[in-house]
Every structure is written in structure tokens, then in C-alpha cells.
Write a structure and sequence with these properties.
It comes from Natrarchaeobius chitinivorans. The chain is an alpha+beta fold and about 500 residues long. The protein contains 20 helices and 18 strands. Bound molecules: phenylalanine (PHE).
């Protein structure tokens, strides 16, 4: 009998005495597993082999599971700290024990919710007790984590952990189960007979090529049959980048909070980027090594004359009766120079000046989520460009409370409720605050933005008569707090972690 080459190879590699897996056959025949599967199905149809199928389950620890395998389960760490503090004699204050345990962020809640369930002790009105008879060494979950940390993707029936504990770890999100279909092939009696009688290899064509078509040869050759059941290589579809997805979510949240979106140029005159913000022309951030200047064209054509005059006066003389300017040179030519914007506060200046959509009446709220460019040194938290979440609110009598309340409301939408503020300095705001959040895995404080209330010296020349509070927040830093990655280069650019980008889910 005649058979295609791959089928002959599989038939010769299979055995009548024991079932051989597709993977093993692939290794012996040096064919891809999907080709072996296809050939095996063909052979089965001819009655030359039998195929048995089963579903194998393998398990491995998630990142969180691995962390606990290394550092100990949060509830065990809490128990150890409680013992240390003498909570086996008398109840001790929770704050003290948590502090001593070194547990941080979400791990505290995890520890508390498992502590009593597992009999480590009790927690009551801010105090904790430890059961002296509890034995962390006999903690089934802790022991299972240790067992599993030594094996990766182990078939579930080979690991020495009982089903109930596995179920519990699964529920806690500490392990991952993966199912795969295993097919095993055995030679049938007919297969053995045919093999002994001798089998010839028939040429079959797996793929139509341009050559076959142009030469007309395709009319004479024999084509291999399609097997739609063969396992194929996994193809990853494209998807929207998580940064882009999060930007969309930020926009939705801000629109929900009553904000309207600003638009404007990535390349802009220094006038809009700096001078309108009462940034002195000799400010270090305005030197050539801190900005990306444009070579062609080098200067903007058009600036509103009256505004230029008012901005220049504010810089030279200050604003109001006892105002003070910088008393340093101010040059319109310098202000006309073009550069990639280092912040999107240039858009705020354009909108506040009435330059984009005419005069804006209070109360008003505007935002943008757009790229900005800075000549920073690349490191885990800095790239040459990032997305800034710019925003401002114009209203009568705004205070720092309004500013902080707005941030609390905004960040809470992303599950971030521990924002901290630090006094800061910007030439264009007074007071000014930097914002910080806590990194969910490292526990470090991460700077996430800069904010303040715009000064008279900025607002008066722009023709704004009431208060304006404003900010610029980094979208990438928000992502860090949301998804816990530590290096911005994991999500951006040539070094990015494709697995992370494929698997991170942005939920709405
Ligand atoms: N422009 C500031 C952010 C900011 C905007 C508006 C007011 C205060 C601060 C920055 O890039 O850091």
C-alpha cells in the first residue's frame, strides 16, 4: 500500500504493544506535533492505528503564590508576629502586630481574612490573640505552596497535595490550572500486517506554491488532506495596548466627573509651553538640553500680540499693586521658539487664554490625556515620552480641599485610595503639591503627579478672573499602581514584556 510520507513515519514510529503520545512520536519522527496528529487521524481512519484521548491537567503557582512560597503566607506571618508580641498570653493591639509583621497593602486584608478561619487566633475590636496550639508547620496551604514551588506545570495527579487544599489555593488565586489534550497512538492489527507487507511512500503536497500554480504541475500532484482537528500553533491576535486602554478609561472617568477634553499641538511655541505659565526665560528647564527643540521650522509664525504684551509685563513687573516680576530679560523671539511640549499645561494655557474655543465662563472643567516629551535619563520610571493626564477646574473660591478631593475621587475610580500629598514648587502655582501613591508589590512611594492652584501672575495676563486649580498626572505611573509592574520599559518600547501585555486585563 502507498501512504504519504508523514503517515509512513508515524506508522513506523508507533508500537502495537504500548500507546505512544503524539509528543513522543513528534520527537522520534522529527515532525511537528500538529503534523503527527494529522497523520495519526488519517491512519486511524484507515484502521491502521487507534487513538486514545485524555485531558491532562497541570498546575503551577501564580506570581502571588510564588511570593507567598518565598515569604510565607500573610496569615502565618501575622501569627508569627502575634506570638512575638505575646498575643498568646493577652490580646495585643492590631496596629502593633501588623507593623511588626511587615505586611503591607492588600496583604494585610488577606492575612486578616484567613487568620481566624485557619485557627491562628481571633481578632476583635482592634485587638488580636494568638492560639498557642496553632502550628504553622502543619498549615496545609503553606506546605502545599512549598511543594508546588519546586515543580512547574506539573501534572495534577503527580503532585503530593490533596484536592481540597488545591481547591483552596485555587480560590485564593495562588495557583493556575492548565488543561491540555493528550493523544496516544497504538498500532492496530491491520497496521502491523500492512507494515509487514511493506508500505511505499506516496508524494503528497502539503502546500500550494506559486511554482506549482504557474507550471501547471498542481493538476497532477496529490494533495494531503486537511485535518481540522490537528492541534495548531497558538496565534496571538492583536489587541489594544493596556496604556491606550487605560487612557480611554481615564477619559471616561473624567468625562463622568464633568470634564471636557482639550486638544492641541505636540509641537508648540515656548510661549504656550512656558511663558504663559510665568516660567522665567532663564529657568533651567528652558535650556537646550532639557527640551527637544525643532529645527524646521524653528519658530511659530503667529502669537496674539495683546497676550504677548500682557505676559511680557507680568514677567517684567509682576501683577497687582505690590506684584513683583522677575526683572530679568524677556524676549519675544525666545518665546516663539518651537519645541516638543514637555507638559500638556501648554494646552491649559491655550484654553484659558480663550485662544482655542473663545472665552470660557466659570464653572468649567477641562482635561487631556496626551503625550509629552522630556529629555530624561531612561530608567525604570522614566522614558523620553509619557502620557500626561492634564486637567483644570475654573470656579470661584477654590481651595486646596477641592484639589485634594478631586484627586481622591479620581483615583478611587481605579481602586487607589491612599494618595499622599507633599508640598512642592512650580513657578505657575501657589500652593503646589506633588502626589504619591504606594506601589502594590514593592510598597514604595511612587510619584504620580504634580498640581496646584494657578498664580495671579499666570491667570491675569490670560484674562482669567476667578480661581483655577490644575494638575498633570502621569498615566504610566497610574498603570504601575494598578497593575503592579515595576519597570516602565516592560510595557513600552523594544524591551517590553509581551506576556504581560497579552495577559493584563484592563477592567471597566
Ligand atoms: N506641568 C506640571 C503639572 C502641573 C500642571 C498644572 C498645575 C500644576 C502642575 C508638570 O508637568 O509636572
Amino acid at each position: 500500500m502507498q501512504l504519504p510520507e508523514s503517515q509512513v513515519a508515524v506508522l513506523e514510529a508507533a508500537s502495537a504493544d504500548e500507546a505512544t503520545s503524539v509528543d513522543a512520536l513528534a520527537r522520534t519522527t522529527d515532525l511537528p506535533p500538529e503534523t503527527v496528529t494529522g497523520a495519526a487521524f488519517e491512519l486511524a481512519e484507515e484502521g491502521l492505528v487507534a487513538i486514545e484521548e485524555r485531558v491532562d491537567e497541570t498546575i503551577s503557582l501564580t506570581d502571588e503564590g510564588t511570593t507567598y512560597a518565598d515569604e510565607g503566607l500573610p496569615e502565618v506571618r501575622l501569627y508569627e508576629a502575634a506570638l512575638e508580641a505575646g498575643a498568646d498570653d493577652d490580646p495585643v493591639s492590631m496596629g502593633q502586630v501588623i507593623g511588626a509583621s511587615g505586611l503591607e497593602g492588600p496583604q494585610v486584608d488577606i492575612a486578616l481574612s484567613n487568620y481566624a478561619r485557619k485557627g491562628y487566633g481571633s481578632i476583635d475590636s482592634g485587638e488580636i490573640t494568638a492560639d498557642p496550639d496553632a502550628d504553622p508547620g502543619a498549615d496545609a496551604e503553606a506546605n502545599a505552596l512549598e511543594t508546588l514551588s519546586d515543580t512547574d506545570d506539573a501534572p495534577v495527579d503527580t503532585v503530593d497535595v490533596d484536592a481540597e487544599t488545591l481547591e483552596q489555593l485555587d480560590r485564593r488565586g495562588l495557583l493556575e490550572r492548565t488543561e491540555s489534550t493528550v493523544r496516544e497512538v497504538t498500532l492496530s492489527e491491520l497496521g502491523v500486517t500492512e507494515l509487514m507487507a511493506g508500505i511505499e511512500t506516496a508524494e503528497t503536497i502539503g502546500q500550494v506554491t506559486p511554482d506549482l500554480l504557474t507550471s501547471g504541475e498542481w493538476e497532477d500532484v496529490e494533495f494531503a488532506e486537511y485535518n481540522v482537528e490537528a492541534d495548531a500553533e497558538r496565534v496571538e491576535g492583536g489587541r489594544v495596548h493596556i496604556l491606550r486602554q487605560t487612557a480611554e478609561r481615564v477619559k471616561d472617568v473624567l468625562v463622568g466627573m464633568g470634564f471636557q477634553e482639550m486638544e492641541g499641538p505636540h509641537v508648540d511655541a515656548d510661549f504656550w509651553i512656558n511663558d504663559c505659565l510665568f516660567m522665567p526665560q532663564d529657568h533651567p528647564a528652558r535650556t537646550h538640553w532639557d527640551r527637544f527643540a525643532l529645527e524646521h521650522p524653528t519658530h511659530i509664525d503667529d502669537l496674539p500680540d495683546d497676550l504677548v504684551e500682557r505676559v511680557e509685563r507680568a514677567h517684567r513687573e509682576g501683577v497687582g499693586d505690590d506684584g513683583e516680576g522677575y526683572r530679568s530679560p524677556w524676549d519675544e523671539e525666545f518665546a516663539r521658539a518651537l519645541a516638543l511640549r514637555g507638559h500638556t499645561t501648554s494646552l491649559s494655557a491655550r484654553y484659558l487664554a480663550g485662544h482655542e474655543i473663545g472665552e470660557i465662563e466659570p464653572p468649567a472643567r477641562y482635561f487631556s490625556v496626551e503625550k509629552v516629551y522630556r529629555n530624561d535619563t531612561l530608567d525604570p520610571t522614566h522614558l523620553l515620552e509619557f502620557f500626561q493626564i492634564e486637567g483644570w477646574v475654573m470656579a470661584e473660591d477654590l481651595s486646596v480641599r477641592d484639589l485634594m478631593g478631586t484627586f481622591e475621587e479620581f483615583y478611587a475610580q481605579f481602586g487607589i485610595t491612599d494618595i499622599e500629598f507633599k508640598p512642592h514648587y512650580n513657578p505657575y502655582t501657589e500652593p503646589s503639591f506633588e502626589l504619591f501613591g504606594t506601589h502594590p508589590t514593592t510598597g514604595e512611594l511612587v510619584e504620580i503627579g504634580n498640581s496646584g492652584i494657578f498664580r495671579e501672575e499666570m491667570l491675569e495676563p490670560l484674562g482669567v478672573e476667578c480661581d483655577v486649580m490644575a494638575w498633570g498626572l502621569a498615566l504610566e505611573r497610574l498603570l504601575m499602581l494598578m497593575y503592579g509592574f515595576e519597570d516602565i520599559r516592560d510595557i513600552h518600547g523594544t524591551l517590553c514584556d509581551l506576556e504581560l501585555l497579552r495577559e493584563t486585563e484592563v477592567t471597566y
